[in-house]
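Journal club side-thread
Mid-discussion, someone asked how the predicted structure for our own chain would compare to the paper's figures. Pasting it here so we can look after the session.
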Amino acid sequence: MLLSDFLVQGARRYGDKTAMVCGAKRMTYQEVDRSSNRVAHALLDLGVRRGDRVAIFLDNSAETVITAFAILKIGCVFTIINASMKSAKLHYILDNSEASALITDLRRWRVAEEATDGLTSLKASICVDGGVGGALAMEDILSGEGDSLPDNPCIDVDLAALIYTSGTTGVPKGVMLTHLNMVSAATSITQYLENNSSDVIINFLPLSFDYGLYQVLMAFKMGATIVLEKSFTYPYTIISKMQSERVTGFPGVPTVFAILLQLKDLEKYDLRSLRYMTNTGAALPVSHIERLRKSFPHVRVYSMYGLTECKRVSYLSPEELDRIPQSVGKAMPNTEVYLVNEKGERLSPGETGELVVRGANVMRGYWKMAEETAAVLRPGPYPGESVLYTGDLFKMDERGFLYFVARKDDIIKSRGERVSPKEIENVLYSLPQVREAAVIGVPDEILGQAIKAIVVADDGSRLTQKEVIAHCAQNLEDFMVPRLVEFRASLPKTPTGKIKKHELS
């Protein structure tokens, strides 16, 4: 099965059903299918061919979805680029991927023009809201002809997407994902979430972020409806949309849930249709899970763990939340995980080690980065296979439930002890006044590294450094208690909501 089949088969089965809601625009499965066919034929006319990479530099929009499916339908590879990216980084990605075409809009045209200067691979550009600078106008494409489904020579081991990592350190890496990778991941996730054609999933996460992208893919796979919003900047607007569209699925990240839990008068909104909430990107603090359960008692909350290189690894069933809320669950369907020490030896339950992932969802590798690929894709337990070494430290209990410890690079070495920032952050989040928290190590002549906590307190809070340290001292061993506490109005984050700890050092 190919990723584009999600739309093609959906159009045949669901036809006039609403597939996508983007602001005031509503599109049926047939309309999305027909529009993507027209864009696909336009790309072929522009000289784009099987295996070419096509970049999409747009906000969350109907055009982003339409063009992604169009690219897939002609056997090409899409890469969706964060809409706020600046020209230098955009140039790097377009050059690195050797993009044959770029799809953007007038708002980003100047940035795109700067970024494409000197590129030799680029054959054509399409502008969503009007022709400019030699670009083909999307309006002309969609009002033209070419409704037939193009011939697609692909097989499922061909590349479907390049997803560039956020690049918090070094240059961005292009994660190579095949149709098989992405279909497998979507199938496993929809299985444990129990998605079906009656679902209405809201998505305000950027489609350049695999978590946001998969909301669209899963909706089309199941014949559900996706409600696309550009961000969570105006949360009450999102809540109102959830009420009017009778949303059943709400994917979020910790920063979104922190905002959600601060909102007033949520009881005024009718959210009885909401069936589930999911979290990934970073672990959801236990205190937030407890508050979500109280605020939305009828909603199933899924705590999950994943990374772009394999999309999703594990999920915690809502039935286990009360018993082990600090866990990110077991391996998802059709995925196997285990822990190893630095010698690559498998570990027993209760020991801390690096998480290794086996499955059809594991990436092909990093685009044009053989050395970096070899560092994370290593020989597996069976001849001829590769498995993913995640770089994340976990513990696993006797039942196979996973507990995140830290990124290998984040471990703090203080007073001769190895300290997990996550353990301290969990204690900080148990303070009711703490909205966000991050723990880092800072150089110290005596300790090696001193532990520093950076805290964002609730508006109007009078929380003090002394109270934070006292709370930690009551709940942690002496060597884990922060020596330094800094209060900030906000924490720097990636577009996907992860805290940029390297900017806090």
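Post-session note: Residues 29-45 form the longest helix (17 residues).
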